[in-house]
């Protein structure tokens, strides 16, 4: 079959099916524009604060405070989005967050007291979870078509990887080439422009769910172990980033760390697009442990390369291969989040998942940094491997428990 014919056949080109629906291409463009700054803001803040105050410790503390504030505020914002609609809540929430970013910029520029930096950056926590809102739209559009939803979730994961791969590079380029505040300013403009375009597509927006009375996602069956698994998965990402930078620095090639880490994101992006083109076999609940097992196995490759060769050149392809298990794992995890979140509270459920992931990133960064400093950078690669194994243990434990409960219930039936 020709390539043109293949593209015209949705069964052979599932991504074409996604964007055949009116409004999906427009909200996806807005989503990508608004999502790119998510990978820019923290890097821009670190460069801006460290450059002006001469303290990476202060810069790190400010960004950590912002992460903690996001963990507290983001689920509340998502709950409002579910109850009142994306357009009604996301735009003013974004505007308030941009005021916080602008305040941070002014406080740094005019040498305000250090405490003002913490307060200003904490105000950016109202930034809506644009990835969660986009996934909620796909879930609304394809709620009765699991194969199409699988493709959409895979595309969203690939978009995550692409934006978090390009965002830091763009931020560093703008701050270094123009002026230290350029990354924050550009990120704010992109975020608002993308959010306005995204929310303008009202035909694809899920209807508000006020008055459903659904239980909070945190108490939904199967959600607590899933969120614990996301904490462990986030620790994989956070520790891998810090340990890789430490390893490159020890080899005298710290400037190459970003390019090497980009290979991991590139591997995940490519694997996510490929995974979305395939038809899923079996329920996501059964695929999930297998994806985590593959991630655990592939995450051992960077440890093996670092310990046996001590070479950044050998580490690069190992990270590329390790990244290929990331997207299928995250796609399957987010599919389970969608399935287990009570109806009408999907934005809140997706935001809880992202919050758990970010919490794991923060913890993994701390543990990975400790291991790289007190043991060795090469040994530090054991941390992401161990975190992946922990996520696998949590998933298999939950699966075994669920099976036992089903068998017990079946045995009690008359």
From TrEMBL:
Keywords associated with the record: Membrane, Transmembrane, Transmembrane helix
Alphabetized InterPro entries for the sequence: MFS, MFS_trans_sf
Membrane-spanning segments: 56-77, 89-108, 225-247, 259-278, 314-337, 349-372, 378-397
Gene3D superfamilies, sorted: MFS general substrate transporter like domains
Pfam families given in the database record: MFS_1
Protein name per Swiss-Prot or TrEMBL: MFS transporter
Annotated organism of origin: Streptomyces lannensis
Source species taxonomy: Bacteria, Bacillati, Actinomycetota, Actinomycetes, Kitasatosporales
């Amino acid at each position: 079959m020709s390539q043109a014919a293949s593209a015209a056949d949705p069964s052979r080109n599932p991504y074409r099916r996604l964007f055949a629906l009116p409004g999906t291409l427009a909200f996806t463009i807005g989503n990508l524009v608004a999502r790119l700054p998510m990978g820019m803001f923290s890097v821009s803040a670190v460069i801006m604060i460290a450059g002006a105050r001469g303290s990476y410790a202060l810069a790190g503390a400010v960004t950590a405070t912002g992460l903690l504030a996001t963990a507290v505020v983001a689920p509340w914002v998502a709950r409002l989005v579910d109850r009142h609609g994306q357009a009604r809540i996301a735009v003013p929430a974004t505007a308030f967050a941009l005021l916080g970013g602008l305040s941070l910029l002014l406080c740094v520029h005019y040498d305000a007291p250090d405490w003002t930096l913490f307060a200003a950056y904490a105000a950016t926590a109202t930034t809506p979870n644009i990835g969660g809102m986009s996934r909620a739209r796909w879930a609304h559009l394809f709620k009765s078509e699991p194969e199409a939803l699988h493709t959409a979730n895979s595309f969203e994961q690939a978009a995550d990887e692409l934006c978090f791969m390009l965002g830091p590079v763009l931020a560093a380029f703008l701050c270094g080439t123009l002026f230290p505040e350029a990354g924050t300013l550009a990120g704010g403009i992109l975020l608002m422009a993308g959010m306005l375009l995204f929310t303008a597509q009202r035909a694809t927006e899920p209807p508000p769910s006020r008055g459903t009375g659904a239980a909070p996602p945190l108490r939904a069956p199967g959600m607590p172990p899933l969120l614990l698994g996301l904490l462990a998965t986030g620790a994989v990402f956070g520790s891998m980033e810090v340990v890789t930078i430490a390893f490159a620095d020890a080899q005298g090639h710290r400037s190459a760390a970003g390019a090497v880490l980009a290979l991991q994101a590139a591997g995940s992006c490519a694997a996510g697009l490929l995974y979305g083109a395939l038809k899923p076999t079996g329920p996501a609940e059964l695929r999930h442990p297998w994806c985590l097992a593959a991630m655990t196995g592939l995450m051992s490759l960077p440890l093996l390369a670092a310990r046996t060769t001590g070479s950044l050149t050998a580490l690069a392809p190992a990270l590329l291969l390790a990244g290929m298990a990331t997207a299928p794992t995250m796609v399957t995890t987010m599919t389970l989040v969608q399935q287990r979140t009570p109806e009408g509270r999907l934005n809140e459920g997706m935001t809880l998942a992202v919050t758990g992931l970010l919490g794991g990133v923060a913890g993994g960064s701390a543990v990975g940094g400790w291991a790289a400093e007190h043991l060795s950078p090469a040994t530090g690669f054991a941390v992401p491997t161990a975190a992946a194994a922990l996520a696998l243990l949590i998933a298999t434990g939950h699966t075994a428990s669920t099976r036992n409960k089903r068998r017990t219930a079946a045995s009690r039936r008359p």
